[in-house]
Each structure stands twice: as C-alpha cells, then as structure tokens.
Specification:
The complex is a heterodimer. Helices cover 65% and strands 9% of the residues of chain A. By secondary structure, chain A is α+β, with helices and mostly antiparallel strands. Chain A has 2 domains: 191 residues; 47 residues, no CATH class. Chain A has a 4-stranded antiparallel beta sheet with strand order 2-1-4-3, with helices on one face. The longest helix of chain A has 33 residues. By secondary structure, chain B is of the alpha+beta class. Chain B has 2 domains: 100 residues, Beta-grasp domain (Ubiquitin-like (UB roll)); 118 residues, Alpha-helical ferredoxin (Fumarate Reductase Iron-sulfur Protein, Chain B, domain 2). Chain B starts with a strand and ends with a helix. The interface between A and B is large, with 38 and 49 residues.
Chain lengths: 265, 251
C-alpha cells in the first residue's frame, strides 16, 4: 500500500493515474451516450424512463456508478495537483512566446478544459441525477398494446407518487380491449422541460465543446503516458481519439439538448 | 558593406541569481547576415566593453552544435526560429534588417538564472549521475562485436544518444518538464545489452532525481520534440514510461 502511494507520488505515477481514470471515464461515456440514445425514440420516453429505473436500481450498475463518482473526483484532484506543480516549475514566464510548432491548443489547456467539464458535470448532475434521486419526479402511466408493445399515446400523470414503485399490470381500455399499463417515473419529461431553457442548452453545448477538445488530446495522450506507443497502431489510437471521442460522442450528446429545444411540443 | 543588417535587441539582464532582472534594449549595427547568432552577440559585447559597460553574459563552448552549452530563448523559441539547430548554428540571415529580437534565458525553476542569459543546468548532471551510466570493470580491451546488437536497436540507441543535454526541451515545455532529456538518456541504455544490467534501477533513480529537481510533469504537448535541436523523439518518453512501469510493477 505504501509503495502504491509512493508510485503515485512520482511524475510518471501521477500521469498513469490520470490515464487510467481518464480511460475509465471514456468507457463510461460510451455507455452513457448509448443509453441516452433512447431519448430519440418515438415512444413518449417510455424506453428512456425504464432504462433510468434499471440504471438506478440494478446492483452491479450501482456499484460501478460509485466507482465512477470516485474516479471523477480522483481525476479532478489529480489534474489540479498536476497543474499546480507544472505552474510551480516555471515561476517566471517568458517575455516573448511563440506557440511551439507542433503543440495543439487542447494539449496546453487541459486544466482549463477539465475545469469547464467539471462545472458542467455539477450542473448536469443537479439537473437530472439529483432530481431523480432526491427530488420529486412524478409517476406516469403508459398504455401499451398487449401484442405489439406499441405505446398508445402520451402517458397520463399519477398523483399518488409517495409510496409508488415502478411496475406493470394488465388492464382494459375504454372499449374493453386488453392493454398493458406501465407505471414509471417520468425523467423524460424533466429532460424535455429542462432543455426548453436557452441558457441551459448553450451551457450544455459549451460543455460538449470542452469535452471534445479535452478528449482529442486526452485519449491519445493517456496511451503515451502508459507507454503504449508503437508506429504500427499509433495512428489508430489517434484516429479513435479524434473521430470517436473528439467528434462522434460529443456530437451525439450535443444533439440531445438541441433535439428537445427545437421539438417544443 | 551593403546587405549588412541593423537590429534592435531586447535582452534579459540580471546581475546575479537573486537580483531582480529586466529587459534592456541594445542596437546591433552593421551585422553581416553570414554571422552566427553568437558572433552577433560577440559584436554587441565588444561595443558594450568599448563603451565601458558590462557585456552580456551567455553560455557557449564548441560553437559547432554538439556541446549543448548555448542556450538562448530567441523570439519566443528555444534556440530561435530554425528547426533542428542550436543557437550557435543559427545565422543572422534567418532574421531581417530592422527586426527587434527578444533574447531570454531558459525559464525553469530547476534552471535558476545565474547571470543574464546563463542558467544553472547542473540539475541535468545530477539526473545523469543518478543512473545515466553503465558499470563495467576495466580490464583488457574487449573484442569488437563480442556482444551482438541488432542494427535497429543500435540505430535507435544512437538517435537517443544524440541528445546534447542543452535543456531546450525544458525551456520549450509549458510545464518545464525534463521528460525528453531523461527519456533519451534512459532509452540509449535500455536499447543496448550493456545497459540491461542496471535497467531497472537506472530508470527509477533517474526519474526520482528528475522529480526532486523540481521539473514539471509531462502533458504530452510534444513541444519538446518540435524544439529539440537534435530532434529527439517523444517516443523516447513512451519508452521511459514503459521502463518505469516495468521496473515498478514487475520487479
């Protein structure tokens, strides 16, 4: 244990910690963006709401989510320490500086980008995670076709939310036809309402731009810090960093607030 | 002579390590474009001496680009505007007449300014002494090629060994990190069978000394590789990280 702490107190150890926590957060982003794609489903938010129940109640996911919170904190604290040490390593700055030929803007501003992402995360968790966990997100009832599972219209709000649990039951509609009822908390509606706010949509877009730049450098840099670099796959890592983590994932995330902002039902 | 240049120099002047420094402006008149940058500095210093003023202190030795002594941060770049060149191999034809040139010492907490443009780079020597060597018992001359080395490894080790320890990597790095220098020194031994005996201790000791000297951490901005006069590659840094992890985790 002691030697592990000693390892993390070396310059290379600190960078290895940044790499490993960063790459873990990258894998989380893949899960998060895939799950949230259900927001685009044309089912009045049923799939998304059921997914939300699964993500907050399934034990292995809960364990991983606590690991995730810990990783975010570790990555942020470690990044802050690195930035402070790096600043202390040059107390007097140059009078004239030209940007070195090959450094990307992102690589020189990881601390600032990380801070923007952290601020975004705090807002993001307050908006949805905190509301869902501790706030009052009301239950709604979806009516589904028994055979096809198709959602038959918008859900209706339920008043008695206090001791309710998500559940499904069989019933019959006004014409006496059998239907399936799904009762679940309506996080989808919280998302929909939140993204009517222009400033919040702008904030989310800024957050995603910061994320994109952070990952364009961060993804490939983490492999370099781990010593994983060879001409045979260096361009592959670079490509994944730019196209998947720098462009595709932030773009899909950014599409979510934009989608709801212009939906305005 | 026609074609000679007149330049304005903004030079960092500082009496001693703890004195307050400041930029001072000098005129460099009638400078031949064929002069090296250091020869231009010599001309300016001659004028200063004639005028009864203190000449500008700067480091230099071989003036052939191989000793690693010259160390000027010229117009916002370590060793000036050219790629793969030390200050002594930079010529005035790389500038234009009438230009203002800013000249500063390397800036790093681990490289304190001793006087004007001279910095103390003994931190590099202490890192080298910590593990940048091979221990061999002296004896009679060994046979040539007694130890087989692949051509690839020999070439790669030679490229790493090209590092002259000038400190441009530290000067160019936004974090004043010494990773490129240390990784070049670690690599040149890690690639050769002679270095294998002390492979683990070497990287641990050298990194430990590097951290003690107060250099920053590596952000992988790769500014060091772009500014290195000997074009040492950042793949050396990845190799050092590998060597370090190997020594820490698998020994």
């Amino acid at each position: 244990m002691n030697s592990a702490f000693k390892f993390l107190d070396t310059s290379i150890g600190r960078k290895v910690l940044m790499s490993l926590t960063g790459l873990f957060l990258c894998t989380f982003l893949i899960v998060h963006v895939s799950g949230n794609m259900q927001l685009f489903k044309n089912d009045y938010g049923l799939a998304f709401n059921q997914y939300s129940v699964f993500m907050t109640t399934f034990t292995p996911i809960k364990v991983v989510s606590y690991l995730l919170y810990l990783t975010i904190i570790l990555h942020a604290i470690s990044g802050f320490r690195l930035t402070m040490q790096n600043r202390a390593a040059r107390k007097i700055s140059y009078g004239a500086t030209k940007d070195p030929r090959s450094s990307s803007w992102a690589s020189k501003n990881m601390g600032i980008l990380g801070t923007i992402i952290l601020l975004f995360l705090v807002t993001h968790m307050a908006n949805f995670w905190f509301k869902y966990k501790f706030g009052d997100v009301p239950y709604v009832q979806y009516m589904l076709d028994v055979n096809s599972g198709e959602v038959l219209g918008a859900p209706v709000g339920l008043t008695d939310s206090g001791h309710m649990k998500p559940h499904e039951l069989m019933a019959s509609d006004a014409n006496g036809q059998p239907v399936k009822l799904v009762i679940v908390r309506d996080l989808y509606n919280v998302v929909k309402i939140a993204f009517q706010e222009t400033w919040l949509v702008v904030l989310y877009l800024l957050g995603m731009i910061a994320l994109a730049y952070h990952l364009v450098h961060g993804f490939q840099s983490s492999f370099q810090s781990l010593g994983i670099r060879h001409p045979s796959y260096a361009s592959l890592i670079q490509g994944i960093g730019v196209w998947v983590f720098g462009i595709l994932i932030p773009l899909l995330f950014a599409a979510m607030p934009v989608y709801f902002y212009f939906m305005k039902s | 002579m026609s074609g000679n240049m007149n330049l304005t120099l903004k030079v960092w002047r500082q009496k001693s390590q703890n004195a307050q420094g400041a930029f001072e402006t000098y005129e460099a008149k009638n400078i031949s474009p064929d002069m090296s940058f250091l020869e231009m500095m010599d001309v300016v210093n001659e004028d200063l001496i004639k005028a009864g003023k203190e000449p500008i202190a700067f480091d230099h030795d071989c003036r052939e680009g191989i000793c690693g002594m010259c160390s000027m941060y010229i117009n916002g770049r370590a060793h000036g505007p050219l790629k793969g060149v030390t200050t002594c191999q930079l010529h005035m034809r790389s500038f234009s007449s009438g230009e203002t040139i800013t000249i500063e010492p390397w800036r790093a907490s681990a490289f304190p300014v001793l006087r004007d443009l001279v910095v103390d780079r003994t931190a590099f020597e202490r890192i080298q002494q910590a593990g940048g060597y091979v221990s061999v018992n002296t004896g009679s001359v060994p046979d040539a090629n007694a130890i087989p080395i692949s051509k690839e490894n020999a070439d790669e080790a030679f490229l790493s060994a090209a590092c002259i320890g000038c400190g441009a990597c530290v000067a160019a790095c936004k974090n004043s990190s010494a990773m490129l220098f240390v990784s070049a020194k670690v690599s040149q031994y890690a690639l050769l069978p002679q270095g294998n005996v002390e492979r683990k201790e070497r990287v641990l000791k050298m990194v430990s000394q590097m951290d003690q000297e107060g250099f920053g951490n590596c952000s992988n901005t790769e500014a060091c590789e772009a500014e290195c006069p000997k074009e040492i590659k950042v793949t050396n840094i990845a190799r050092m990280n590998r060597e370090f992890l190997r020594a820490k985790l698998f020994s």
